[in-house]
Amino acid sequence: MQDRIKAILQLEPSDATVKAEGWVRTKRDSKNVCFLEINDGSCLKGLQCVIDKAKTDTALLDRIGTGASITAEGRIVSSQGGNQKTEMAVETLTLIGECPADYPLQKKRHTVEFLREKAYLRPRTNLFGAVMRVRSTMAYAVHSFFQENGFVYVNTPLISASDCEGAGAQFQVTTLDLENVPKTEDGKVDYSKDFFGKMANLTVSGQLEGETYATAMKNIYTFGPTFRAENSNTARHLAEFWMIEPEMAFCTLEGDMEWAEKFLKYVFSYVLEKNAEDMEFFSKFVLDGVVDTLRHVIESPFAHMTYTEAIKVLEPENDRFEFPVKWGVEIQSEHERFLTEEVAKRPVIVTDYPKDIKAFYMKMNDDGETVRAMDVLAPRLGEIIGGSEREYRYDVLVKRMNELGLKPEDYWWYLDLRKYGTVPHAGFGLGFERAVQYVTGVANIRDVIPYPRYVKSCEY
Ligand code: 4AD
Ligand code: MG
Questions:
Q1: Handedness of CA 260, 389, 234, 330 (dihedral sign)
Q2: pTM for the whole thing?
Q3: Which of 353, 359, 364, 375 has its CA nearest to residue 434?
Q4: From CA 401, how far away is CA 423, in angstroms rounded?
Q5: Pairing between strand 159-160 and 200-202?
Q6: In contact, 208 and 224? CB cutoff 8 Å
Q7: Is residue 430 within 8 Å of 243, Cβ to Cβ?
Q8: CB distance 358 to ligand 1 below 6 Å
């Protein structure tokens, strides 16, 4: 196993021979020496390889250009140039894979739009290398936060027969022949002939199944892909995204909010510590001051307001909004940004939304109008977490389902939880890509996931 370039860059000059493997980012030639900067994705910086032309086959050197894969063996020496502390004095150079001149990532700044078209190569750029390292660290931090706090990781199904959010934005899973769909006598699709013998979809959330495990193991979390067939062509929506959904039994909305705040702050702090170099890069080239903003968020308590209070703050500002608000309407991202950026100047947790704009499973307040929901809103992005205390009273839940036209018999197992040892419980969902966007300052969600899926786009 070879050392990664990140480790090689930490070595002091010595006579030991070191071997590096990577892809050429830049090549600079002078009369007697050639400089190759190679990168292997382990860190932002590359290793400067200095090649003495007198001792090297120049025909081989001519074949090495930007993008080629090489191995270089030599000693680590102090660097003459000012850009790096050390460099490699190469003794043996091997070309593994040539890279012709039509390589799309030539040395210049490319736009994110251009790079999206080259999604299979973009991890070789500084920006995407840094984003994907941070994404990976954040995934690790998610697991370590919950594991350290005694939560059990539960894998909920991706193919599901129930609609958690009731928004009807599901992708159907079927093996029926679409050219020749079997029909029942009354002309409807005959799902008894389908693979599962009933209609099935890709999951929009693992919450309902997560609740069944929380009401056995107390604290659980899920972390997996989620699918939404929403026709939302925005910088914060994907059709396939990753969601983290903790669920806690013997827990009310207050506990839910505490966990959410503690969790976000843990993940942010973890990345600032582990990916300091990448974070500096984002602060310098992506979003000015993003590191300071994160520090500020970690240090200050989140603001709290109810939906009703939020509407009171927003209504007098209606002139500035594309969608004016009044009590009862959905809060859109422009309002979320106003609340976080102009009013609170930090993340805000909004609670107690009107029942008509939230899902069926949220606990009804005594006013009969609002539910124990909470959304965590972040500056720049708006909603990054959606959660609630769950309705754990059997009769109230059945009544609510009927009001919304959901068939209680379709949710028989979910209702059984309210029959067999019911307990107050609560949970939330964090959109993983939105969290990565927030941490890196990257403006478009399509640039924080390797292969984004959205309306009319499913490349690679
Ligand atoms: O608010 P949502 O729809 O809540 C739920 O799914 C609940 N079942 C969560 C729970 O209580 N266990 O989604 C949760 C989060 C949102 O706050 C947002 O960050 C993200 O998931 N999200 C999306 N991210 C990217 N693209 C989309 N289309 C998203 N839809 C939701
Ligand atoms: Mg939501």
A1: negative
A2: 0.96
A3: 375
A4: 19
A5: antiparallel
A6: no
A7: yes
A8: no
Nearest to 142 by CA among 258, 269, 229: 269
| Cα 75–chain centre separation | 40
Q: Distance, CA 430 to ligand 1 centroid (Å)? A: 6
> Is the Cβ atom of 441 under 6 angstroms away from ligand 1?
no
Between CA 247 and CA 428 the distance in angstroms is 7
So what's the pLDDT on residue 82? Answer: 79
**Which residue in the block uniquely carries the two structure tokens 């927003």?**
314
Residue 167 has pLDDT above 70, yes or no: no
344 lines ligand 1 (CB under 6 A): no
Q: What does the pLDDT look like over 239-281, one tens digit per residue?
A: 999 999 999 999 999 999 999 999 999 999 999 999 999 999 9
φ, ψ (nearest 5 deg) of residue 87: -150, 175
pLDDT mean across residues, the chain: 96
Portion of the chain with pLDDT greater than 70, in percent: 99
Please, are residues 311 and 326 in contact by the beta-carbon 8 Å criterion? yes
Compute, in angstroms, the gap from residue 355 CA to the centroid of ligand 1.
17
Residue 207 beta carbon below 6 angstroms from any ligand 1 atom = yes
Cα gap 310→336, rounded to integer Å: 9
